[in-house]
User: Fold DDB1- and CUL4-associated factor 7 from Folsomia candida.
Amino acid sequence: MASQTSKRKEIYKYEAPWPLYAMNWSVRPDKRFRLALGSFVEEYNNKVQIVSLDEDSAEFAPKATLDHPYPATRIIWIPDNKGIYPDLLATSGDYLRVWRAGDTEIKLECLLNNNKNSDFCAPLTSFDWNEVDPNLIGTSSIDTTCTIWGLETRQAVGRTAVNGHVKTQLIAHDKEVYDIAFSRAGGGRDMFASVGADGSVRMFDLRHLEHSTIIYEDSTHTPLLRLAWNKQDPNFLATIAMDACEVVILDVRVPCTPVARLNNHRSSANGLAWAPHSACHICTAGDDHQALIWDIAGMPRAIEDPILAYTAAEGEINQIQWGATQPDWIAICYNKNLEILRV
Assistant:
């Protein structure tokens, strides 16, 4: 075992044929180092590719590639770490699409459009797949709304068919909504938050949708682009403002006042990912080529410096994901490259 461990590398790299943006780890127990990647090409024809790491050869190999209209704004594998659901993958862009992954191909299962009166759909900026109830997906859109979809996977002749319906749609913000994320609070099914161009973080409860809670408003009303909930302590979440070098940590028990500001990035922060196994670690990444891991256990004392830093010499990091079932690994994307880093 020791000799096998010593052979393992600290960094694995894959170069795609196109610039990358969206990216997500598979959590299925039988697919350890499998990731889905989305191209970022400024035209209609884009791609989604599934890659897997062969631990013997220490190389990433593409397993399947599909055509995707426009760049995917987000990709998420079904949060099914027991492997009991169909092997599904969802993407957002012009619509929400759910795909089925086979060993060598990916097939479209359903395309979800909540505008029944028109083929036109306001672009989706992001989405989140509920980890407690994988039949729920929430999308955010530039039309100021969030939509909660109910998925059904039902047995058809010889295979499982997947379709979906709108459970609820709500006007979430005064301007475009840029990100949405379910919280693990209160059982993990009904609470979610969103951020948008109005510079606010708002929290919703599916059981009481007649009102929302504004957790935070940027003092200059700068648009907020990303948010992420702490995976172990649902009181904390993090958000990033447009063109800001800092990441803001919020405590829902103390609305409107950040409990910490992480500001070692030297140019715009682009991504953030909480540790799946620890309540006090978060990773941030940005245009300064850096991925930084922070220990926030000292809050509310100021968090001065990260505890780990990695520099991607060749490019601005635009995406970061911490392996949900493999907490030793963080994945980053820059230019055409995917790297997974052992932490």
